[in-house]
Amino acid sequence: MSNKRHMGLRASAHISNTLIYIVLVVMSVVWLIPFICIVLQSFRVESTWQVGYVIPQKWGWDNYVALWNSDFKRWYLNTFITALATAVGQTVFVLCMSYTLSRFRFKMRQGLMRFMLVLGMFPNMLAMIVLYRVLKDLGLTQANAVPGLILVYIASSGMGYYVSKGFFDTIPKSLDEAARVDGATRAQVLWKIILPLAKPIVIYTILTAFMAPWGDFVLARYISFGTSAGMNVAVGMYSWLQQDMIGQRYTMFCAGGVVVAIPVTILFMCLQKYYVEGVTGGAVKG
Amino acid sequence: MASVKLTKVKKVYDNNVVAVHDFDLDIKDKEFIVFVGPSGCGKSTTLRMIAGLEDISDGTVEIDGEVVNDLQPKDRNIAMVFQNYALYPHMTVFDNIAFSLRLQKMPEDQIYEKVTAAAEVLGITDYLLRKPRALSGGQRQRVAIGRAMVRNSKVFLMDEPLSNLDAKLRNQMRAEIILLRQKLNTTFIYVTHDQTEAMTLGDRIVIMKDGYIQQVGTPAEVFEMPKNLFVAEFIGAPKMNVMRTELKKDLNGGYTVSPFGVKLAVDGGKSEALAAKHAPTGEVLLGVRPEHITLAKEGQPGAIPCTVEVNEMMGSELHLHVVTEDGTRLIVRVPTIDLEPDQRHGLQRDSRLYITFRGKVMHFFDPESQENLLN
Q1: A177, A192, A197 ranked by CB distance to B86: nearest
Q2: Per the structure, how many domains does chain B have?
Q3: How distant, in Å, are the alpha carbons of B30, B61, B68, B195 from that of B27?
Q4: Residue B1 has what pLDDT?
Q5: Which domains does chain A have, with CATH numbers?
Q6: CATH number at residue B123
Q7: What CATH code is carried by the domain that includes residue B252?
């Protein structure tokens, strides 16, 4: 290859890289602007109303203190309990279901998997009225919405087995067999051999199970039905955006948004390595 | 140490495919038995039924006189080495070997003693703190054997344990398994598709095809007296040459054959053996192993003319693929020491040569049933 041609290729690679970086930087800025605005507004203390500028004139923790002294504390606890219980329950259900479908062969196994696939295609919204009636009969709505929500989130979670099963399928069955010959029971095989090897998918399952109730609005609003004691943060904070409230609570709303985002952000930053491995785990046989 | 008895064992899969048909076998205490056969012959399925990893559709498996059909693998007192080693990737070599002992709730000091003793025997002491991914294929195989060793099981099962190793390492590990067997002095059941492994390791060999046992015998028995054409061709490398010919009786009552129009006497006791079995004259399949064919001189009685098609130089011997005048292809194994110095690098393609073989090395099979006429 001539020197001139080599220089030409290098220059064109530089130009293409520069263009790519410009596009990526612009996209990042556009994506980050709302977050930055919310954080800045949460520290604004000169007015609780919406104002026509982004950078506060007076900074302070007033909004966070007001948040602490409001119903937000209760909503936050409700959300945390719901998300934590759902994460634990859903993870157990999903992993047991995935392990069973990956390792055991029984009559109608294929039929069951197909049935669950079809069932999962129906929008959740369709079941909402029925769910409300059932939960109301059980006394699990309004002030008791938290256990009601946990029950709904966990109840059908086994159907979301696809990703985990795909991951389990990549773990050689001979490991199970070797452990069984070594003296392990089926449960010991799962706990001592399979789960340590499936750490990425376990963490992925916990994260996704935690995230759904953490940010849920529609079902949570429906079940809590206007009772503050049963609301989660999304439903509770939404009430601050009503016409008569927004003027007094706008900056508090922003502070609430920041507080809600913090645990999830920390969780993702710590576990993102496993999350990526979990999502891509079954893609290529290792 | 235990005997293993399989009686009419059958395996039928859900799709009604029968993998193993009426498998009957008595394995003696401390015997090294090898199941050998091509892919899909049911050898691994049979081993897995003994291990308890496959349900038994029919028949019984007994270990040390106890029927184990309904026992879990952990309750059968067996140890197993898998084809892909099946080492637990998240555990160190020490933990891999100690896994079964910890499940038995053995005290840690005893576990340490047993694991280090096994590691010493297998030469893996330096790797005890490594994870399996940091080991070579041979080292992994040793760990897998170590894991099975520490359990002091009654029966040692091995499912193609050397098939993932390269040829050189396979030979080395084969020798190590022979030494291990001498040390452990227990009952071994070994599955392989490699007839060399079967011949070198087994006290007895079980040759299988399509789920049926073809022959059970010592390596010498299956080599010298194959029960049928399948066994004859499967055991021995390169495989036995087979040709159609007429089996005739001469005036003296002895048998003769005429492959490729050359009359050869069936001597060396084979004629008497055929007569004792009242073997009928007529068309037969004549089998001769490549190493039993010798080079002959032109004009020598019994010399069969042929031309060289392919040379395979193996070092100590030459594998000659030759074509007879009627177009039949044969393989001849010639020790290079028997060749003229100018022929030792191989014979020229299309060069003419003469071959012959003696009656005592001939095998006769029925063209219909393919059974050995001397059975």
Answers
A1: A177
A2: 3
A3: 9, 11, 15, 20
A4: 64
A5: 70-282 (1.10.3720.10)
A6: 3.40.50.300
A7: 2.40.50
Residues B279 and B336 in one domain: no
* Residues B305 and B330 occupy one common structural domain: yes
> Which tokens sit at B233?
């061709």
How far is the C-alpha of B149 from the C-alpha of B156, rounded, in Å?
Answer: 8
Tell me if chain A has a CB within 8 Å of the CB of B54: no
Tokens 């933990």 found at: B95
Enumerate the H helices of B20-67 as residue ranges: 43-51
- pLDDT on residue A242: 80
CA distance A119 to chain B (A): 27
| Beta-carbon count within 10 A of B260 CB | 16
pTM: 0.81
Q: Do B151 and A174 touch (CB under 8 A)?
A: no
| Positions in chain A short of pLDDT 50 | 282-286
> Is there a single domain that holds both residue B263 and residue B114?
no
pLDDT bucket at B341, cuts 50 / 70 / 90: confident
**CATH number where B308 lies:** 2.40.50.140
The ipTM value here is 0.84
Q: Cis omega (within 30 of 0) on the bond before A56?
A: no
For residues B251 and B338, membership in a common domain is answered with: no
Examine the fold and report which residue of B233, B251, B272 is the final residue of a domain before the chain moves on.
B233
C-alpha dist (Å) from residue B274 to B254, B267, B268, B367:
9, 11, 11, 16
Q: Retrieve residue B326's tokens.
A: 């009627």
The residue range of the domain holding B108 is 4-233
Q: What pLDDT, in 10s, does the model give residues A64-120?
A: 998 888 889 999 999 999 999 999 999 999 999 999 999 998 889 999 999 988 988
The verdict on B126 and B260 lying in the same domain is no
Q: What is the mean pLDDT of residues B287-315?
A: 92
| CB nearest to A197's CB, from B52, B90, B100 | B90
Q: How far is B235 from chain A (nearest CA, A)?
A: 30
Per the CB < 8 A criterion, the answer to whether A259 and A76 are in contact is yes
Among the candidates B233, B264, B279, a domain finishes at: B233
Q: Are residues B83 and B176 in the same domain?
A: yes
Check residue A54 and give its pLDDT. 80
* Contact present, B36 and B206 (Cβ < 8 Å): yes
Pair (B208, B68) in one structural domain = yes
Phi and psi at residue B121, in whole multiples of 5°? -60, -40
List Cβ neighbours of A116 (8 Å cut-off, separation of 6 or more).
A158, A159, A161
Render pLDDT for B30-84 as a digit per residue (tens, 0 to 9): 999 999 999 999 999 999 999 999 999 999 999 999 999 999 999 999 999 998 8
Tokens representing A198 are 């499936």
Q: Are residues B8 and B76 in the same domain?
A: yes
Q: Which whole-number Å values give the CA distances from B224 to B231, B269, B288, B325, in the listed order?
A: 10, 14, 11, 29
Reference B284, options B364, B226, B374, B369; nearest CA is B364
What integer pLDDT is reported at residue A283 of this predicted model?
45
Please list every residue in chain B whose beta carbon sits closer than 8 Å to the beta carbon of residue A192: 99
Give DSSP secondary structure letters for B145-171: HHHHHTT--SEEEEESTTTTS-HHHHH
β-bridge mates for residue B313, sequence order: B318
